[in-house]
């Protein structure tokens, strides 16, 4: 797909996020919207996957370490064909496969159940180590939040991956500068992230605009060329990207739009789609 086509898909993914969170009357739109471009690129361009066979042995794996951004992942999976887009409206409903955090036992396409921050990257490291041990060729991708990087378990996992040269592992840090209680700096900054990953023997790529498809494509192309070390992509993103009143607003980390806000958000996304 061209970068413009991917951007159009990402815009549809954002519509799905807003629709799902509005229908649930709860959820996490901010980070889901901000990471929509990266997750779209992974599932529509980068990863070896097959929606018709979600458990195929040689598929690439994805672990949403920032599990609260599940609406974004669900919307990507739905638009990729793992389940009907209409099912997004069942988010967080009793009996739905699409709960507030990813559950690998319910929703097709989920490789790891996540939600407790810091644990997802450890699972991804384990998957990458298993692939090396058994001689399997699949790659493992994981998406973390910058606030999540305040968790010590993140750095235990990073230490292990670097020491074991897991070059089949790519960790993307969604660096939007905001977390549930405020800015990263106000809460407990883990910066500078790039230097920390380098200290743990990772190849680091700094992505200036994690909402730009051309730049996203370039960094993942670079990541594929790296050998003998895991790759960390520090991606600068806009929390709430695509919805004007949500962008860079910490209050939209974890709340749903009301009916009026829903209509405004969907109108803005529709207009953005037409421009693409």
UniProtKB/TrEMBL annotation:
Location of the Transketolase N-terminal domain: 8-266
PROSITE patterns listed in its UniProt record: TRANSKETOLASE_1
Cofactor(s) it depends on: thiamine diphosphate
Superkingdom classification of source: Bacteria
SUPFAM superfamilies given in the database record: Thiamin diphosphate-binding fold (THDP-binding)
Pfam families in alphabetical order: Transketolase_N (PF00456)
Keywords carried by this UniProt record: Metal-binding, Thiamine pyrophosphate, Transferase
GO molecular function, one term: transferase activity
PANTHER family registered for this protein in UniProt: TRANSKETOLASE N-TERMINAL SECTION-RELATED (PTHR47514:SF1)
Family according to the record: Belongs to the transketolase family.
Name of protein: Transketolase
Source organism of this protein record: Collinsella aerofaciens (strain ATCC 25986 / DSM 3979 / JCM 10188 / KCTC 3647 / NCTC 11838 / VPI 1003)
Source species taxonomy: Bacteria, Bacillati, Actinomycetota, Coriobacteriia, Coriobacteriales
């Amino acid at each position: 797909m061209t970068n413009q086509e991917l951007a159009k898909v990402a815009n549809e993914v954002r519509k799905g996020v807003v629709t799902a969170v509005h229908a649930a009357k709860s959820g996490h739109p901010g980070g889901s919207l901000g990471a929509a471009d990266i997750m779209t690129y992974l599932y529509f361009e980068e990863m070896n996957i097959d929606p018709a066979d979600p458990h195929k042995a040689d598929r690439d794996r994805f672990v949403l370490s920032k599990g609260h951004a599940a609406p974004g992942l669900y919307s990507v999976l739905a638009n990729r064909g793992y389940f009907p887009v209409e099912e997004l409206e069942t988010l967080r409903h009793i009996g739905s496969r699409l709960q507030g955090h990813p559950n690998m036992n319910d929703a097709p396409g989920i490789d790891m159940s996540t939600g407790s921050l810091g644990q997802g990257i450890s699972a991804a490291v384990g998957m990458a180590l298993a692939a090396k041990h058994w001689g399997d060729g699949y790659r493992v991708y994981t998406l973390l939040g910058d606030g999540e990087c305040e968790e010590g378990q993140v750095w235990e996992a990073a230490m292990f991956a670097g020491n074991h040269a897991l070059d089949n592992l790519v960790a993307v840090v969604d660096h939007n500068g905001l977390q549930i209680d405020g800015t990263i700096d106000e809460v407990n900054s883990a910066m500078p992230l790039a230097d920390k990953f380098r200290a743990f023997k990772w190849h680091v790529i700094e992505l200036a605009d994690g909402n730009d498809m051309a730049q996203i494509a370039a960094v993942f192309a670079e990541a594929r060329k790296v050998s003998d070390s895991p790759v960390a992509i520090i991606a600068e993103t806009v929390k709430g990207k695509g919805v004007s009143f949500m962008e860079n607003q910490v209050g939209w980390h974890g709340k749903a739009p009301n009916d009026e806000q829903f209509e405004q958000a969907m109108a803005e996304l529709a207009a953005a789609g037409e421009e693409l």
